[in-house]
Amino acid sequence: KVKIFQGIWTKTNVKSQKDHLYVFGDNDLKMGCKGQAIIRYLPNTIGIPTKKKPSKHANSYYTDSEFELNKTKIDNAIKELFEKSKNYKYIVFPSNGFGSGLAELDKRAPNTFKYLTNLINNI
């Protein structure tokens, strides 16, 4: 049921596969359309939080000092993903994973990054 999308997706890719649920790296505010979130407003998409805000200010990024809060946000998003995925044939993840791009999760919150990566790898 899980597929990995190789390369960088476009709205056209996503629109053409209505039975696929595309999962992108998101922020807590669910705003912005850069990076993986270019597909944000399409109906067959869902975001997993990897950043607080769509900004480059230091307070926009997750840190491991808030690890428990980060886990809660991620866990809630994964529950929502499972619920929404019942309406789709496939779940599609980006080949470059989550949090390694604009969110810099792997650098700024490595424990959170590992937690999220483990969850995704076990879907």
UniProtKB/TrEMBL annotation:
A Pfam family it matches: DUF7831
Residue ranges constituting the DUF7831 domain according to the UniProt record: 4-118
Protein name (record): DUF7831 domain-containing protein
Organism: Dictyostelium purpureum (Slime mold)
Lineage of the species this protein comes from: Eukaryota, Amoebozoa, Evosea, Eumycetozoa, Dictyostelia
